[in-house]
Amino acid sequence: MYDPAYSPLLTDLYELTMMAGYFEKKMHEKNAVFDLFFRKTPFEGSYAVFAGLEPALTYLSRLRFSPEDLRYLAGLGIFRSAFLNYLANFRFRCRVTAPPEGTVVFANEPLLTVEGHLGEAQLVESALLNLINFQTLVATKAARIRSVAGHAEVLEFGLRRAHGPDGSLGAARAACVGGVRSTSNVWAGRLFGIPVRGTHAHSWIMSFPDELDAFRAYADCFPDSCILLIDTYDTLKSGLPNALIVAQELRAKGHELVGVRLDSGDLAYLSKKVRESFDGAGYPEVKIVASSELDESIIESIRNEGGRVDIYGVGTKLATCAGEGGGALGGVYKLVRIGDEPKLKVTSDLTKATLPDRKKVLRVIGTEGRFEMDILCLEHEQPAPGDTVFNPVNPEETKRIPGGVRFEEIRRTVMENGEVVLPLPPLTACADLCQDQLNRLPEGSLRLKNPHRYKVSMSRGIHDLRSRLIAACRERFFNNRL
Question: How high is the mean pLDDT of the chain?
């Protein structure tokens, strides 16, 4: 298992200056609650897939300041010695609440909640956002790709285009959570137990006198795992006929050609022609692998045009989360309670106003096991069928909870006093959970264009509390200006 030793300096400077300020004002041990959430669903879709929890918990449980860290901070000339002495004995002792990785999640609902001493909970903001934002984004992209691939296998091929070595590992791991269960990245395969897959590059073909010699040499080296790249010169006039020759030669020696790969051209058309040729020659088991800047839209197009691809290798656009509405998740980390006081951010833009206090996230499940909606409620509330709930972004928009449903709390305490308290499942179990949850979304939720918008509502308790806090904030603001 990947065992990162993330530095406590993996943070924005303002986390440390705020922490030092809390320490100076003797506020650092006040109890505080922070929610980590995102406001807008990525890729203009209807859902996201939660990922990054295990690396986040590993980071939190091992958070320590070394003497070298403290010397560096002292050298900045902005921190007093008493605060640095406090950091020398620092341990993260908060409670963390989160859903399992692979859970389908939605905008405006808390993913992680961190509760404990204010200084500790503040320090970890940047690192948690870094870990959760990226892996959740990749897992979501992977789930979108997996959802349109049908029965075809999908491989993660993004190492060379990922954002650095750590980005490549995080992308391979998160892609597995989202349902892309194999990778070309050998390091990720070893660390995470993900099956590794690969063929050869065009340079292999070009290193030999001709294409047939290259194919024969590769088949000789790997007679039981041979996949040939057939588009180096001409897919249909050269690569395909030569691959058929090698398939015959392998069979004569008691082996079978595993597959061929297409890395350019009209993949839908070429895959149909290649399939016809191999089937006609008596090789229906030969797999057709397609790569070349694929994403969910291109894969959907290939399938709609009758393409015969068995395996999609998806690299750049998965590892970098390219595409409309991609690039970054935009998760935020906001204070929702300090001491006995619920807190919220008030803004003229209601889409950026936060939801105060400790919360539960309840999933409303219909009689056939389908997800109907999510409800955010205060920790002691228990909504019931028939209750009115409110749109968090537009509270004037209301809805009644339908009858005949049950409620399931999707989050649980995963860390207590800085220690992980629940066993964390393997990535395959996270991927299974993701697939099950995607299958239970309302009809139309998986569409790439104009998907069904899943409802996330807030309870009467949160609605009324937020309204009171907003009114109180505005009253103080205007009174202070008079």
Answer: 95
Closest to 32 measured CA to CA, from 356, 258, 271, 310: 356
Task: Answer whether 96's CB lies under 8 Å from 21's CB.
Answer: no
pLDDT of residue 353: 77
Residues 211, 183 contacting (CB under 8 angstroms): no
Q: What is the pLDDT of residues 325-344, one digit of tens each?
A: 878 899 999 999 999 999 99
Q: Which two tokens stand for residue 322?
A: 């390219």
Question: Is 380 a residue whose pLDDT tops 70?
Answer: yes
Cα–Cα distance, 322 to 195 (Å, whole number): 24
Name residues whose C-beta falls within 8 Å of residue 212's C-beta, 6 or more positions apart in sequence. Answer: 242, 245, 246
DSSP 355-397: PPS-EEEEEEE-TTS-EEEEEEEETT----TT-EEE-SS-TT-
- Does the pLDDT of residue 95 top 60, yes or no? yes
Element (H, E) at 220: helix 211-221
- How many whole angstroms separate alpha carbon 469 and alpha carbon 335? 14
- DSSP string covering 155-216: EE--GGGSSHHHHHHHHHHHHHHTT---BS-HHHHHHH-PPB-----HHHHHTSSSHHHHHH
Read off the pLDDT of residues 246-266 as tens digits, 9 standing for 90 and up: 999 999 999 999 999 999 999
* DSSP code, position 349: S
Which H or E run includes 233? none
What is the sign, positive or negative, of the torsion defined by CA atoms of 156, 160, 161, 167?
positive
Q: What is the average per-residue pLDDT within 404-411?
A: 97
Residue 92, token pair as written in the block: 């993260």
Distance of CA 394 to the CA centre of its chain: 27
The pair phi, psi for residue 98, each rounded to 5°, is -160, 160
CA–CA distance, 53 with 173 (Å, rounded to integer)? 11
Measured distance CA(63)–CA(9) in Å, rounded: 10
**Distance between terminal CA atoms of the chain?**
60
Distances (CA, A) of 281 to 227, 241, 255, 274: 17, 11, 16, 11
462 near 362, Cβ under 8 Å?
no
Which string of DSSP letters, residue by residue, matches 102-139?
T-EE-TTS-SEEEEEEHHHHHHTHHHHHHHHHHHHHHH
Asked if 113 contacts 35 with a C-beta cutoff of 8 angstroms, the reply is: yes
Compute the distance between CA of residue 433 and CA of residue 474 in angstroms, rounded to an integer. 44
Burial group, residue 328, by CB count within 10 angstroms (0-12, 13-18, 19+): exposed
Residue 119, Cβ neighbours under 10 Å: how many? 24
What is the model's pTM? 0.95
